[in-house]
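Sequence of Rho termination factor (Fulvivirga kasyanovii).
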Amino acid sequence: MAKNHGSSVKNDEKYEALRDEGMSKEKAARIANSKNPGKKGGKSQKYEERSKDDLYDKAKKVGIEGRSKMSKKELIKALRNH
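Predicted 3D structure, token representation.
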């Protein structure tokens, strides 16, 4: 049985599985709390297809520290692991 993470996590089992896979607490909680965590939207442009400026703006929006010194490749990695 999964540990109860309180009201901040709606699906404790999913949260623990994602944390075991190495996801950050924030990302695991965001996925575990979504209504359809197994479905992908597929509508967004891939990070590799976006400009560095677009990636920088996205990193700023989600609060990634040190983004101004990151390369495009580093921004992609940071966004995927956030």
